[in-house]
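Example record

The entry below shows one chain as it appears in the dataset: sequence first, then structure tokens.
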Amino acid sequence: MRKGGVVSGITTGIIIAALITAVYISIGSWLIDLDMMREMMGRIGLDKLHRYITGAIYWITANSLLEEFVWRWFVVCQARKLMPAWGAIVFSAAGFTIHHIVATSIYFSPLIVGIITLGIFIGGIIWSWLYVRYDSIWPAYISHVIADLAVFIIGYLLIFG
């Protein structure tokens, strides 16, 4: 990994987490149907605090690491064989985004899915750029973990707060 990767990962993670929080506070809190969300979480068992925390730990640590290996290391590397770096970055971010549209559309309205999709695409671009810039998944992983932490804190507040 090139010098500065950890700092860039932390910095971009904090910025992304702040943006996620700002969007939630400004519009998400009145767009999200809390009753429906709590019901959906109950269907999959995430309305129990210990399960929510266990799931959050998994998604924040293991799942984000797997996503970094797949979308940054594998997809970006393979796409760079066929196109310039920026093309590979956008291609990887688009795949990463499509992968998340399915999951978010189960829980949220189309308007919220659109907002989330834009955020995920921007995050995917940033994380793919970090991978290309530092030749390592670790800066992107650090940033991804911080962003996911913000998402799960907001989720906690929605379900249990």
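Notes for this example: Residues 5-160 form one domain. The helical segments are 5-31, 34-43, 49-80, 85-107, 110-134, 138-160.
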